Amino acid sequence: MGKIIGIDLGTTNSLAAVWEEGKSCLIPNSFGEYLTPSVVSLGEEGIVYVGKTAKERLISHPDRSVSLFKRFMGTDKTYKIGGKKYHPEELSAFVLRRLKEDAERYLGEPIEEAVISVPAYFNDMARKATKNAGELAGLKVERIINEPSAAALACRGQAQEEDETFLVFDFGGGTLDVSLVDCFDNIIEIIAVSGDNRLGGSDFDEEIARQFCKENDLDFDSLSPQRRGVILDSACRAKCVLSEKKDVTMQVTDGEFRGQMELNNKKLIEISMPLFQRMSVPVKKVVNDGKKDMLEVSKTVLVGGSCKMPAVKQYLRHLLSECRILAMNPDYMVALGAGTYAGIKERKEDIKDLLLTDICPFTLGTGIFNERDAKHLLMSAIIERNSVLPCSRTERFQTVKDYQKNVSVNVYQGEEYYAANNIHLGTIMMGVPLAPKGKETITVCYTYDINGILIVDVTVDSTGEKTRQVITTGAGSISPEEMEKRVKELEKMKLSPAGQESNQMILAWGERLFAQTTGMIREEVGKRLDYFQHLLYVEQDVYKVEKFKSGIKKFFQNVENYLDEAGISWEPDDVDSWYQEEGEEEEETQEECDIWYEGHLTH
Ligand code: ADP
Ligand code: MG
Prior knowledge:
There is one protein chain. By secondary structure, the chain is an alpha+beta fold. 35% of the residues lie in helices and 27% in strands. The chain has 15 helices and 27 strands. Strands 1, 2, 3, 4, 10 and 11 form a six-stranded mixed β-sheet that branches. A six-stranded mixed β-sheet has the order 18-17-12-13-14-19, with helices on both faces. A four-stranded antiparallel β-sheet has the order 21-20-23-24, with no helix packed on it. The radius of gyration is 25 Å and the shape is globular. The chain starts with a strand and ends in a 6-residue tail after the last helix. It binds adenosine-5'-diphosphate and magnesium ion. Magnesium ion (MG) binds at residues 10, 147, 172, 304, 334.
């Protein structure tokens, strides 16, 4: 069997690794570097540039060069370059082909198979697009692995350490992924994942750029795209300097315009405080979802370029005060883990018994009839988030109208109370025999495999008729623009009519808790929410509403207390209590790094 390589196909940078002589080793590209920028540029004569050269051409030939296309994997977005249209998966295929060729040259043999990592939040469509990209590049991709799981594997793949539970904090260019990992014997179990797929390094760039505009009498929102690009770029560079130096002068020259701003880490924290606040949310959520206490978490491993920010490290050190923070090699962890997984797949003697169990990062469910408001279906979970993969779950549903002809099973992914606020993945329509409501039933079975591919089986119980659908259509994919639009629409909806404020608050509170919890607690929250809405909108009985209100508030408060029990409820507003200038900072736990540096990094 030929060698299998592991690939971290990143939004910003991509890299590859291979299992050799008992460890995962990074593969250098033709520049002798490990990171290949995920940028593609098409030359006039049909030449495709990938990586460093393409990144340069991003500035010199902006109309023939593209980056950040990973964000649109699995959507219908196309990029027009030189009169031809390209899908994100085709552009990714160029990057993969480059990595494949570099690996072949370095290893001296043809490479036909790869393990590719994807963000945990990637939906079905995006995972399929990634597999397609591999195939387009001439690579068989039998296994897609979640990035946080790969990072976890990299932490365990080598040393035979003691049993432990740890956090992986992967903070990249546009997203934050947090996972809770349990390790015992040779098993690495991902027990919970959470994240914020709208929070990353580029948000800091924007905050810096906005502050720069404020100090230089510019209005960020009305800048031309070009000038905004220049300022953002300069903001990003200033941010990166701050991981090496105490302060930096950000300077921008663009045509007639000249501007500058002084920046240090403390100022950076002050202008981006809301971003720090958001960082703690997924940490809290995974610990709760994993039913752990923060005291049981032995360490937090930092992954991703944004973890290089000293402010981020210090913030985490404060947030997780009892826990060791390991900032070993944030750029390489995911690729090293993918390489380790490639070793497991090759059944290499020194690693073949290592077992990685992964979970479904989001809830998969269906929309069910809402008696109060037939237009707004409710989400009924079939596979709950954090279920161990592969998994298969069955639920039975009944007809809701007399003599209805068809039933439609709408497949949704997400944690929201109303089905429509989740991502719609597909619909299966089936005819049912005519009967009074509630008499006919269907059985719905969801099967989610280790690559995160969903199969839905629907059976009409009385006739035994079956339909199977592998969720593949593009119909369910949602573009970032659509997502943006939806978020905006939801924000508008927050304006509730005066006089109903406290009832609306309870509803909103319940919906949030519904999204934050799982299992029986979620069921109980849902039941109360249902009944409260029933009183408000169906019975419209003011007396009963008031009577029920104190009970439901008490219940929600108990759930809240339960969620807080993990002990992370710290607010980052008081900078002075946690941020110190460099030098005053405690020493990093450098000894841990040796395991990783040894052998991998030869340049
Ligand atoms: P992704 O996984 O999304 O491709 P990476 O993990 O490569 O992203 O991280 C990219 C992000 O890290 C970018 O926002 C970049 O600005 C940021 N970054 C890289 N190096 C540094 C640094 N030295 N200091 C601060 N931020 C950095
Ligand atoms: Mg990454």
